[in-house]
């Protein structure tokens, strides 16, 4: 059994999801076994993105213990745009542990190199998973996305505990029990970057989903690539392999294997968990750390103010201008206007402005 432990604040740059087994922190990439039940051909899936959500989360390859974090592009946290008529990711999305798509291997079928990531998997069962879930899945087939010139396999799977899992054994069964899902999946991957100004993605094999036997061969291949990676044999493949953090606690053949105490020290240095800006906003408690820069009664003091984005046009006879002191994902403005109800308040080192929820959009 594996436990996901969140640190930092969701949808903030410091957000991480670490993983534990019964003995302490582990790497989801290196320490969770690929096979959940090899006799039944069930593999473990690590959920990075639950269905219907938009935040692009992924296993961090470069950090010790490889926690899940939100992807960043050009300094901004990434959120996948909605592609009509879909909302966010249309399946539970994640990766298989102990796999690596070697960027120095050109696949003969796709004629493209691997994308330097663990292999991706879309899980189509009825349950909406949680970020950090680990559970056994049955592989049904795979698509071969060509993403910016790299092979990016998208395994198609179903939770082995799903009510219809026993009825699905190959990719042809998906259309029978989930009509239209394969077509929607291809459409989603073709278009999901277009709202960000990127071109339409393309697929190898004309977008045809390959069957389960083909997919299992790909899994065996990327598992062997991972073995060479974690053992150090892939170091000759250049910076791509060297940039992946290989810290683990269970792989005996790995020079990067550490004692449990060292893994525990990594987790102990992670920031403590905090409410996410979105969760706090729903409670009307998003706090931005601001400094008063006007000439009013609270000049020079630090103020904690409820998220001004919730109150875009508050009417007040007295207002003050505040500057953002510490970056916060709930705000992109350097200067904000906030109601100042404290003009008669006694001197204090900090103030909290608690405002009623605005009914305005």
UniProtKB/TrEMBL annotation:
Hydrolase among keywords: yes
EC number: 3.6.1.1
GO molecular function list: inorganic diphosphate phosphatase activity; magnesium ion binding
Keywords of this entry: Cytoplasm, Hydrolase, Magnesium, Metal-binding
Domain of life, per lineage: Eukaryota
CC cofactor: Mg(2+)
Location(s), subcellular: Cytoplasm
Region named Disordered: 325-345
Entries under Gene3D superfamilies matching the protein: Inorganic pyrophosphatase
UniProt record similarity statement: Belongs to the PPase family.
Protein name: Inorganic pyrophosphatase
Species of provenance: Arctia plantaginis
